[in-house]
């Protein structure tokens, strides 16, 4: 099974959307294996978004992401990196389809409520950046036989 990193950004937390976002992943059939509610430092966010360091919005993004609490999570499931990106919608909510998290819940690119790893390689890096091995919970989901052949 793949794992991916998902974070409810400060705007999503402030708007009370953590439960809705968790519900969408659970309803889809994915398994939550790690979660924590944190206020990340600006330095941590600079490391997280290092691949965007040459973009004009980088400094503002890092400052914003460290401005309030974040719900950091690791979800597990078949093809979860690809599927979670589809669930999130486009980075710009105006380009997101109804039914996606961003398409349904936000309107502005600078306040797009959620982050999700874009590749399996980045998911591994992001998971390792945010979570230690002992923070994962291993368990058998009773729904697994109903989700997978």
UniProtKB/TrEMBL annotation:
What Enzyme Commission number(s) appear in the record?
A: 2.7.4.6
Which major enzyme category is it?
transferase
Any GO MF annotation of the entry = nucleoside diphosphate kinase activity
Q: GO CC terms for this protein?
A: cytoplasm; lamellipodium; nucleus; ruffle
Which PROSITE patterns does the record match to this protein?
A: NDPK_LIKE
Where in this chain does the record put each Nucleoside diphosphate kinase-like domain? 1-138
Q: What does the record give as cofactor?
A: Mg(2+)
Query: Out of the domains of life, which is the source?
Result: Eukaryota
Example GO BP: CTP biosynthetic process
**Catalysed reactions, semicolon-separated:** a ribonucleoside 5'-diphosphate + ATP = a ribonucleoside 5'-triphosphate + ADP; a 2'-deoxyribonucleoside 5'-diphosphate + ATP = a 2'-deoxyribonucleoside 5'-triphosphate + ADP
Q: Cellular location of this protein?
A: Cell projection, Lamellipodium; Cell projection, Ruffle; Cytoplasm; Nucleus
Which residues bind ATP per the record?
Answer: 9, 57, 85, 91, 102, 112
UniProt cross-references to InterPro entries, sorted A to Z:
NDK-like_dom, NDK-like_dom_sf, Nucleoside_diP_kinase
Pfam families from the entry?
A: NDK (PF00334)
Q: Which SMART domains match?
A: NDK (SM00562)
Q: Where is the signal peptide?
A: none
Annotated active site residues, numbered on this chain, are 115
> What keywords sit in the KW lines?
ATP-binding, Cell cycle, Cell projection, Cytoplasm, Kinase, Magnesium, Metal-binding, Nucleotide-binding, Nucleus, Phosphoprotein, Transferase
Q: Which family does it belong to?
A: Belongs to the NDK family.
PANTHER family according to UniProt: NUCLEOSIDE DIPHOSPHATE KINASE
NCBIfam families of this UniProt entry? PRK00668.1
Task: Please explain the role this protein plays, according to its UniProt record.
Answer: Major role in the synthesis of nucleoside triphosphates other than ATP.
Designated name of the protein: Nucleoside diphosphate kinase B
Organism listed in the record = Labrus bergylta (ballan wrasse)
Q: Source taxonomy lineage? A: Eukaryota, Metazoa, Chordata, Craniata, Vertebrata
């Amino acid at each position: 099974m793949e794992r991916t990193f998902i974070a409810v950004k400060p705007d999503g937390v402030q708007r009370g959307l953590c439960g809705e976002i968790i519900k969408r992943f659970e309803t889809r059939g994915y398994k939550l294996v790690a979660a924590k509610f944190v206020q990340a430092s600006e330095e941590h966010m600079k490391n997280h978004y290092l691949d965007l360091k040459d973009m004009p919005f980088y400094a503002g993004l890092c400052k914003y992401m460290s401005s309030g609490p974040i719900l950091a999570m690791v979800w597990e499931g078949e093809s979860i990196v690809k599927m979670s990106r589809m669930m999130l919608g486009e980075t710009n909510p105006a380009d997101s389809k109804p039914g996606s998290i961003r398409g349904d819940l936000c309107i502005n690119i600078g306040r797009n409520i959620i982050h999700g790893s874009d590749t399996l390689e980045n998911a591994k890096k992001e998971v390792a950046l945010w979570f230690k091995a002992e923070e994962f919970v291993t368990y058998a989901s009773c729904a697994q036989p109903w989700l997978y052949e």
